[in-house]
Task: inverse folding
């Protein structure tokens, strides 16, 4: 039987204990900082991205690393790109406790094309892999993709496989024991010229999810949004399903705000431009 992902319910809320509540923030603030722009936690390790508004001269961005010592969260390290430049927005992060990937979506990369909408060598984007070794996060590799547009808009990692989104595609990288290599680039073949396929991504084991928040519905109208599901089968990533909100309507942007998945359960955000509300939808995998 083919596994399918079915809608469960609308998430209203949940309760966490505040016994260990703690406010985390950098030592000093600068105008236009966005501390918390991206966050990722695994076990007792948390990584928090700090990005900036894309103003001329804005710093390149940084990721703060925290460890929980049993009592409180302690800042242990900051990550920066060795070739970082102003306005890079090095801040979009995910990690699994052993390997982290950080996107710098506005990074200037000379020598490669930046896609059909931006042929100049600006804003191609880049992503950086770090591996936790000998008590510290150490840079392992930088990756770029020829033809990308803002690579690093979104990132997700699961063991030896990672997915990195840009403004038109999602790129899957795999670690072969020595380095990260591009395995496959995913695109939405039915997307429109306004597509934002790749803006939000998630990967867990052999399941990848990519949103296109501007996906046009044939009867409901523009920007209803979809999330495309891919599975690793026969040595390649194959689209197997498209997820939509059960109450979808025009300009709802299903898939905007993020995708999280684990153990056959996925939660997908929806942030509307015009209706003044947001929602999150939970899906569960059935069959197999």
Result:
């Amino acid at each position: 039987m083919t596994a399918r992902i079915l809608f469960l319910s609308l998430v209203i809320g949940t309760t966490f204990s505040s016994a260990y509540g703690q406010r985390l923030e950098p030592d000093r603030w600068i105008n236009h900082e966005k501390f918390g722009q991206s966050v990722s936690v695994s076990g007792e390790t948390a990584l928090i991205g700090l990005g900036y508004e894309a103003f001329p001269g804005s710093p390149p961005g940084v990721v703060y690393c925290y460890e929980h010592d049993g009592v409180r969260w302690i800042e242990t390290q900051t990550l920066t790109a060795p070739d970082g430049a102003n306005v890079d927005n090095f801040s979009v992060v995910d990690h699994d406790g052993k390997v982290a990937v950080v996107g710098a979506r506005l990074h200037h990369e000379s020598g490669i094309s930046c896609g059909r909408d931006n042929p100049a060598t600006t804003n191609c984007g880049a992503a950086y892999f770090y591996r936790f070794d000998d008590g510290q996060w150490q840079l392992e590799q930088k990756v770029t993709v020829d033809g990308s547009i803002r690579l690093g808009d979104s990132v997700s990692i699961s063991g030896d496989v990672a997915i990195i989104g840009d403004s038109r595609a999602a790129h899957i990288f795999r670690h072969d024991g020595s380095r990260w290599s591009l395995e496959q680039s995913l695109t939405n073949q039915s997307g429109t010229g306004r597509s934002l396929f790749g803006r939000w991504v998630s990967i867990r084991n052999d399941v990848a999810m990519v949103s296109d928040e501007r996906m046009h519905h044939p009867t409901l109208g523009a920007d209803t949004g979809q999330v495309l599901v891919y599975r690793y089968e026969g040595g390649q990533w194959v689209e197997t399903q498209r997820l939509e909100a059960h109450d979808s309507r025009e300009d709802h942007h299903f898939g905007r705000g993020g995708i999280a998945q684990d153990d056959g359960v996925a939660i997908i955000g929806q942030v509307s431009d015009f209706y003044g509300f947001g929602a999150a939808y939970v899906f569960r995998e059935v069959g197999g």
User: Anything to note?
Assistant: The chain is about 0% helix and 50% strand. The domain at 4-12+33-286 is CATH 2.130.10.130 (Methylamine Dehydrogenase; Chain H). The chain has one domain: 4-12+33-286.
